[in-house]
Specification:
The protein is mainly beta. It is 8% helix and 63% strand. It contains two helices and ten strands; from the N terminus they run H-E-H-E-E-E-E-E-E-E-E-E. The strands form two sheets. It has an eight-stranded antiparallel barrel with strand order 1-2-3-4-5-8-9-10. A two-stranded antiparallel ribbon has the order 6-7. The longest helix is centred in the first third of the chain and has 10 residues, at 2-11.
Length: 190
């Protein structure tokens, strides 16, 4: 879907500089999560972004941090699109398989230490708000930083350990409130 959107925008007559951007989140890249996003100008101060990421492999033995996520976002820019300060509202949805991770902390009601002894496999949906800033490097390249905060609802099956063990809970619901987006994006604008 993102590829089709990119091809459509590139084929539009009169598409000029700073009407469309393709980006990658360097923070996701650091966690070996493949990701790409496209952003399109809708009006002088409004853009729409669609991002997707995938982490489909096991790294470092039995550790699980597998997931896919799609995150559309609408943005309002205080100066002009693709430059300076912006605020956004985003949705998110995806599936995950997390477990055998040594994260010994609690954050806003979520106990991440449970990921050490149990594996959680399920789906998620959510929404949030974000703030960011985009620095223009030259005519085509930008760097952007963004942080988002919101709510995520999940349902998962819970297993005793990362690779083996019996299912101990089915369709367990969980509400998460906290960061829903963190990005340092490398951007190429069209």
């Amino acid at each position: 879907m993102l590829v089709a959107l990119c091809l459509y925008v590139l084929a539009m007559p009169g598409a000029g500089a700073q009407d469309f951007a393709v980006k990658t989140n360097l923070l996701y890249d650091a966690t070996l999560t493949a990701n790409i996003a496209g952003e399109m100008r809708l009006a002088p101060r409004w853009t729409a972004e669609l991002s997707g990421n995938l982490n489909a492999w096991t790294v470092g033995g039995d550790h699980r941090w597998k997931h896919w996520l799609v995150q559309p976002e609408g943005r309002y820019w205080f100066c002009q699109a693709f430059s300076g300060h912006f605020v956004g509202a985003h949705l998110l949805g995806g599936q995950y398989n997390y477990g055998n991770l040594d994260l010994n902390f609690k954050f806003l009601g979520t106990d991440f230490s449970k990921l050490r002894d149990f594996r959680y496999q399920g789906w998620m949906v959510g929404a949030g708000i974000a703030y960011g800033y985009s620095w223009i490097l030259d005519r085509r390249w930008n760097i952007e930083a963004e942080i988002g905060f919101g709510w995520v609802y999940t349902r998962s099956d819970v297993y005793e350990c990362a690779d083996c063990g019996r299912k101990v809970e089915t369709d367990k619901p969980h509400n998460y409130v906290g960061p829903t987006k963190a990005a340092i994006n490398l951007i190429y604008t069209f």
